[in-house]
Amino acid sequence: MSTPASQALDRTAVPWLFAAALVTTLPHFAHQAAWLSLLTGLTFAWGAWLWWKDQRLPGRWLLILLVIAACSSIFVEFRTLFGRDAGVAMLVIFMAMKLLELKSRRDGMVVVTLGYFLLLTHYFYSQSIPTGLWLLLAMWLVTATLIRLHGGPASTLRATLRYAALLSLQAVPFMLVLYLLFPRISGPLWGLPQDAHAGKTGLSETMSPGSIANLAQSAEIAFRVRFDGPLPPREKLYWRGPVMEQFDGTSWRPFPGRHVAERVEVISSPIGYETTLEAHNQRWLLALDAPTGLPAESALNGTLTAGVRQPITQRQRFRLAASLDYRFNASEDSAVLRRNLQLPAGRNPQSHALARQWQASEKTPAAIIAKAIALFGSRDFAYTLQPPLLGDNSIDQFLFQTKRGFCEHYAAAFVVLMRAAGIPARVVGGYQGGEANPLDGYLVVRQSDAHAWAEVWLEARGWVRVDPTAVVAPARIETGIADALPAGEPLPALIQLRADWLRDMRHRWEAINNAWNQQILGYDPQRQRELLTRLGLPDTDWGSLAIALGLACGLLLVAITGWTLYQRPRRDPATRLWHKALRQLARRQVNCAPWETPLAIARRVDAERPELAEAFRRVADAYLQARYGRPTNNLKNLKNLREALAQLPRWR
Amino acid sequence: MGIFATLKQQLFRWQSDGSAPFRLCQRRIFIIPSRGGLLFALALIVMLLGAINYTLALGHALVFLLAGLGLTGMVHTFRNQYGMLITPGRCEPIFVGETALFQLTLGNDRSSPRLALELGVEEGKTVMAAVDALESTKIAIPVTATRRGWLALPRVKLSTRYPLGLFYAWCYLQPAMRCLVYPQPLASPLPAVSSTPNPGERSGDGGQEDFAGFRERQPADSPRHVAWKASARDTGNRPLLIKQFAGGGQLELQLDWALTDPAQSTESRLSILCGWVLAAEAAGARYALHLPDRQIPPGGGEQQRQRCLEALALVQP
After folding, report:
1. Contact list, B67 vs chain A (CB under 8 Å)
2. For residue A439, what are the domain limits?
3. Mutating which of A112, A120, A518 best tests the B interface, going by the most B Cβ atoms within 10 A?
4. Residues A267-319: pLDDT tens digits?
5. Cβ contacts (< 8 Å) between A564 and chain B: which residues?
């Protein structure tokens, strides 16, 4: 198959295509399987070597074989060819293979289109500001490649890059209009593949020794909160996650059956707040205890946890309200109470014995609780992120031997003691505290704020929160985890920051990120409705939105067309000065016809205006020099002409 | 020509642009998405669906930015042609079967270059051109001549995909240009030399053989006869000198239509005459051409050759 001259791909355009392929695939190397990156890199190197040596590209059959082999490997790796990760891997492989098939300009077009498509796939993994900037640069380079592809060798590197920047800048107004006005639909349109939201960290539904300690080592942000009023005291900020009632000796799980609706008595007036939850792939909202106002898509699930029907798979905003003082299920179903007294048989005999001893000696449940709290408050217990491993009788081991644990150890041990002493108790997972960013007023709650505490049921008071960690490490509740842990614990550096300026910088960066998340990434159908209402277009339907969009884009197109096509009339500077001289003559009634040559005019001036003759002759000579003299002397000639013109006597 | 082609010809019919320079105005430039543009649009739709499905805010932004890029690319593709100054040039006569080169000057009085312009006539080869900022480029459009006589430049298509290749803009140029096509020369032995030179003509002047002195050069003189050495000896700005020859045995050929084989077609007979003219000129002979409707008196040199070939090209069939 031969390609016509205009369709052929010139050799010097190939490095552009390689560069475009590289910038669009490179960020994927960070998270995809090593063999995929290696294969891609080798293919790139092979293609580059073939180009360098000006050798023949591999035949079609070899390429088909390679693609089939690569796709089979992807299938083996991911068990599917569809879905997010497998799809991205295929695109990367196609891109690499296409570089071995660069024959015509159409192949180049395919590389560029694939490149644009690959840009989108990076957003599956990150939509942060650095990603956005990197991809903007990549888009610029890909566009420059496209221009180079069609401009041929006549387009130089600098001119091509500048032209690509110009085109991209002119596209920005369209992007803004479309971003704001294009009818937004909340996804997904069809079922998302299984791996769509893989790799999201957060509180899990079960709790076992070490699970929260692991989470606490991450400085990732779990959610951000903006309170309508002032920030409530820190020790009241308990963000409730799953309530775990079932204990099998090592791990705690929520009760899987149905719950009876809770009865909450509100004591203090509710405070409103807005939370922006990062994706955690779970069905709860992490509402502040006790939730009184919930968004429409959420409901309490019977244990005061605000649940949602669909897992939270992307960053989402919710409006909530909470009452910090409350009474929860003052009268509780007997089945629930019985459930919260169960313990695995034959485990932790020492703890059971201790609890039964308390039960015998103390009269009220409150006194038993005080006993347990006093036990934890003794000097023996330490708060640490690196507790020793525990065996089958984990609670006994913890209480009587190791005495070192993180919040889940204390909560679990406390609940086991209470249950053994006949007081209904359960473990609550969630987050505690948070850090206020002084720059934008948001309260930032991180994974390191993950926490577990206990809840006991008391006659007439209902479920009451008891946090044994507060006794062991009061600083954990009052100021945060960094102060509660002894030095040398494996906390991420970000959380440990003690230096003020570092902390200040972190606050700044997080405030910028938050603004980016809230204002740009968080532009959803609801925000769009709000914006349209503010623009005076309330309750717009699709039709009128489409008309508005079309109008705005049409106007923009007209503006850009006008700007692009408008040409300032250009005149040669020598001609401009010459015309100035002719105007001077016209004022003295020497009118010149367009066909008269400068020398003819000069001769006429000799005859008609002898007083001007010498000065005008100089102007005419200088003009002829400037027009027809050596181009290298252009500037000097122009200067002479200007001087000659200045010496022409002015008409008064 | 099929119906579609006829329709196309009718739809895009333009008046002749004349022989004066003209500018490409907005009315004559057409623009449609190219195949690459359609691929790009398809990719954008798929990307938009992906962005909606996975709720990627930046994905939306990227798709919209690329859509805007496509639209601005359209404007810039149009701009690559808009306002270009086309100046028809000249075209050297050729023989049938050769390729006529119609010269056009593409002028760009804008401060940005115009790249990747493709010019060509339908069913002909295309040429690529690029015009730098504030410059002009001379290009030649090749047209194969199949018939003798005047070959008018057919409609020229000027097309471009620059800068992004997502759109294809084109316009038709119809400058009034024509090229004289001589008959295809057919090599055949020259006819017999006429024995008696014309008695009325002064013999010995302007021959080719014996040197007979110098005279001042006239513009029509061949540079081969310039006396370079003699001129170089001369100081001052005198005109060049021409060596004059006096020809004793001067040939004078009568190339007569009647001498060709009447059994052959008109075109073949013209081809034979054409071959004779070339052979006679190559031999340095003087020759006259006699056609049924035109007589060309004897003469020699480039001018005579041109006159004869032109007469042959324009013989009414």
Report:
1. 171, 174-175, 178
2. 198-340+423-522
3. A120
4. 888 899 999 988 888 888 889 988 888 888 888 888 888 888 888 887 888 99
5. 72, 75-76, 79
How many structural domains is chain B composed of? 2
User: Cβ contacts of residue B170 below 8 Å, gap of 6+?
Assistant: B29, B30, B31, B157, B158, B159, B160
Residues 172-231 of A with CB under 8 A from B: 172-175, 178-179, 182, 184-190, 192, 196
Query: Within a domain: residue B246?
Result: yes
Q: Do residues B127 and B247 share a domain?
A: no
Domain that holds residue B246: 210-313
- B239 C-beta neighbours (distance < 10 Å), count: 11
Overall domain count for chain A: 3
**Within a 10 A sphere around the Cβ of B316, how many other Cβ atoms?**
9
DSSP annotation of A8 reads B
Q: Which helix (H) or strand (E) holds A462?
A: strand A462-466
CB atoms within 10 A of CB A223: 26
Find which of A3, A91, A123, A513 to mutate to test the B interface (most B CBs within 10 Å of its CB).
Answer: A123
Using the beta-carbon criterion (under 8 Å), do A570 and B109 form an inter-chain contact? yes
Same-domain pairing of A94 and A149:
yes
A375: left (phi over 0), alpha (psi -120 to 50) or beta: alpha
- How far is the first Cα of chain B from the last one, in angstroms, to the nearest whole number? 25
Nearest to B52 by CA among A316, A187, A190, A521: A187
Instruction: Decide: B266 and B315 in contact? Cβ < 8 Å.
Output: yes
Residues A117 and A204 in one domain: no
Query: Tens-digit pLDDT profile for chain B (317 aa)?
Result: 577 777 766 666 567 788 888 888 888 899 999 999 999 999 999 999 999 888 888 999 999 999 999 999 999 999 999 989 999 988 999 999 999 999 999 998 888 889 999 999 987 788 999 998 888 899 999 999 999 999 999 889 999 998 899 999 999 998 989 999 999 998 888 887 654 444 444 444 444 555 656 666 666 666 777 777 777 766 666 667 776 665 545 568 888 898 888 888 989 999 999 999 999 888 888 899 999 888 999 888 889 999 999 999 998 87
State both tokens at A90.
């295929």
Position A439 in a domain: yes
